[in-house]
Design a protein that fits this description.
Elements lengths: L25 H13 L42
Amino acid sequence: MNSLDVTKRELSSTEIDPESLEHLTPEQWTEFLALLDEFSECFSESPGFSDAMGHRIVLKEGLKPKKFQASRILERPEPD
């Protein structure tokens, strides 16, 4: 099942908190919001899995990938 086929509430520019865009220039802000509205069906508030794209890693012949132990990524606390 493609994640775009799943019914999710689409995200539009009207739902973006302006404070989250303060790091952008006014031109970047306008361009970002226009893209978000144009392609709103591609964005959602709820993250999820998408199988819309695939990839393949081609190794050199005889090369075996190294296996690493999984490690946690620690979240940094939000500044007060």
